[in-house]
Design brief:
This protein is α/β, with parallel strands linked by helices and 405 residues long. 44% of the residues lie in helices and 17% in strands. Strands 1-2-3-4-5-6-7-8 form an eight-stranded parallel β-barrel, surrounded by nine helices. The chain binds 1,3-dihydroxyacetonephosphate. 1,3-dihydroxyacetonephosphate (13P) binds next to strand 3 and strand 8.
């Protein structure tokens, strides 16, 4: 099953009255525990990486592990950038493998929130990647005491919500109805009337930030009123922290001793959420309803008529500029090992999705490079786009792969 389109996933959740957990992860312990819980609950899951946590891990280093965990999973998975800081953050996240993005412009004035979010949507939709916007302001910081960050909660306005969605084109809306990020004293008061009105006006998957500390009944009412994605972190962090403290009290010393059973604690809490939010047991129906997310390999085999020195300039310039196009994940510029081969050079450009084939071709950076550098020197060439011949889900499910010829 592995990676699927996040838009399909949340539409399925919204239509069928359950919510998918977007669990922020900060280490391999979190990643493994979240995936184990999803596997044991037979649940779809969103692996979420919050830019506010980038001080604790290297985004570029952790993403290959996140992607590998998603690709080998038996259950449907999406990978999401949470609380991105800028358009550049969203583009980087897509390059590293996220297939859903949120850039948090909610503390900006409304007009600015709309214009900045619109920019994100234009870039991400060109890669077929959905965008979560936030209107109103959910105060607090994930993983910290809510009281330490007492910023004013700004409730999402029902009147502004429709206009915001229409003008930005976001696929999901994070709403502020009384939750706060981080550790709470007691249960917050939630404005369910407001949520019901927003849901009736928008009819699109809604998102709740600050899931930690809400009661079971509050979760049920959120989901009954259109919430299809719940962001969750502090409770997982606290479960891990308590385990480490208990290990120390019991005499554990050294890193591996201190983190022993941390995964078990996180897994238990994630599994509890999956059961409560109604996503447990849904892996199969979600996989049947959601398109698999597939990268594309854009291959060009070519010969050059220019000198070797000019060829080196042409390739270096291509590597530099083509990597800036949204949806380009990786570029390999190759030179044949065997001089007698039909073609002497190749480009292998990895695209985030099939949609990038068109947007890349038409992107001004590509057009300029192709017209001024590449085409005048590489008349002899073949270009082919490849999607995976065998879907990852078939490999993961153990069905036989076709033999290589
Ligand atoms: P909590 O840390 O309060 O669970 O909130 C997580 C969150 O909203 C991440 O975006």
């Amino acid at each position: 099953m592995a990676l699927i389109y996040m838009r399909d996933l949340l539409q399925h959740a919204y239509r069928n009255g359950y919510a998918v957990g977007a669990f922020d992860l900060v280490s391999l312990d979190f990643l493994q525990a979240i995936m184990d819980a999803a596997d044991s609950c037979d649940s779809p899951v969103i692996l979420s990486l919050a830019e506010s946590h980038f001080d604790y891990f290297d985004f570029e280093l952790i993403m290959p592990a996140v992607e590998a965990a998603a690709m080998r999973a038996r259950v449907p998975v999406a990978i999401h950038l949470d609380h991105g800081a800028s358009l550049a953050s969203a583009q980087t996240a897509i390059r590293l493998g996220c297939n859903g993005v949120m850039v948090d412009n909610s503390s900006a004035p409304l007009a600015e929130n709309i214009s900045r979010t619109r920019e994100i949507v234009t870039m991400a939709h060109a890669c077929d990647i959905p965008v979560e916007g936030e209107l109103g302001y959910v105060a607090g910081v994930e993983g910290e005491d809510a009281e330490r960050h007492p910023g004013e909660v700004v409730y999402t306005s029902v009147e502004e919500a429709s206009d915001y969605v229409e003008r930005t084109g976001v696929d999901f809306l994070a709403v502020s109805i009384g939750t706060v990020h981080g550790r709470l004293q007691g249960e917050p008061q939630l404005d369910f009337d407001r949520l019901g009105q927003i849901n009736a006006a928008l009819r699109l998957p809604l998102v709740i930030h600050g899931g930690t500390g809400l009661g079971d009944d509050q979760f049920r009412r959120l989901i009954a009123n259109g919430v299809a994605k719940i962001n969750y972190y502090t409770a997982l962090s606290d479960a891990a922290g308590s385990r480490i403290a208990a290990n120390q009290q019991q005499g554990a010393r050294g890193y591996t001793g201190l983190v022993e059973n941390v995964q078990h604690e996180i897994r238990t809490e994630v599994a509890r959420c999956m059961q409560l939010w109604g996503c447990a047991g849904r892996a199969e129906e979600v996989a049947a309803d959601c398109r698999p997310w597939q990268n594309v390999e854009h291959l060009i085999f070519y010969n050059l008529t220019c000198s070797d020195w000019d060829a080196a300039q042409l390739i270096a310039e291509g590597e530099r500029v083509l990597a800036t196009i949204p949806g380009v994940r990786k570029i390999f510029a190759g030179k044949t090992v065997d001089e007698s081969d039909r073609f002497h050079y190749c480009w292998r450009v990895k695209f985030a999705s099939p949609a990038v084939i068109d947007t890349y071709r038409e992107h001004p950076v590509h057009v300029k490079y192709a017209d001024t550098w590449f085409r005048p020197n590489a008349g002899d060439r073949v270009t082919i786009d490849f999607a995976p011949a065998i879907s990852v889900s078939r490999e993961a499910s153990g069905q036989p792969a076709s033999k290589a010829s």
